[in-house]
Amino acid sequence: xxxxxxxxxxxxxxxxxxxxxxxxxxxxxxxxxxxxxxxxxxxxxxxxxxxxxxxxxxxxxxxxxxxxxxxxxxxxxxxxxxxxxxxxxxxxxxxxxxxxxxxxxxxxxxxxxxxxxxxxxxxxxxxxxxxxxxxxxxxxxxxxxxxxxxxxxxxxxxxxxxxxxxxxxxxxxxxxxxxxxxxxxxxxxxxxxxxxxxxxxxxxxxxxxxxxxxxxxxxxxxxxxxxxxxxxxxxxxxxxxxxxxxxxxxxxxxxxxxxxxxxxxxxxxxxxxxxxxxxxxxxxxxxxxxxxxxxxxxxxxxxxxxxxxxxxxx
Length: 314
Known about the structure:
The protein is an alpha+beta fold. It contains 10 helices and 13 strands. One of its GO terms (molecular function) is protein homodimerization activity.
């Protein structure tokens, strides 16, 4: 039996007629079915997610019998996979094809099993940790295509199984996992991760070269999350009672969470009681939609906010 590395090729791979599209309908249907199974099996065992129609894909030719699939045959076999939901064209010109040897729902189920098996129901991890972390080694998730992973994660998010949040870059995108429901403590950890100094975000103080976490302006204990009612309250403590930048700090927190959290969340930003001379006025401004909108129309203020968020968005 012929092999490609350790992969055993089926018997039909050595018969020249199978490399030419058969004119008889019944014969062609059998031929297409064999090629579909072969492509899926080979891609699964070799962890191949993208097949280029015009690229040197090992299955498209057999040097032993000196046969190669025509462009028409390649497109026919891949299109057959697409019609069954086992592949998708990645471009309008049909040059590259995404192979779904597991359907998106099946990948989603594997992710949930991975979360349960590793006790991560209440955990927070990055997207990259799922596909390249220590826990995923030896599983089908290890090394999986990022496009497929994100599709599966968004499928789970839509079903309320987990929450995705943005990070500094694509590598830092985070996942807050849940199996039955997103628990408040896990959600608080997620929000804290968005605000404090970690790979996800590092908001800089407007006046000092330190993060808000380093200055103790923000702590995880000062974050309240009611996921059931989609509510988040963040309480921050200015460094001094007469801090002139308290409103800017609060605005930075609001803007960051507006950009990062799912839109269903209502965000409440407040100064810790008794920590600022104009506490009531600051709280009113930070939680008045019209005032916030007006502030964000001020170019100088927006520049200041963006500078504070630059560690996250630069």
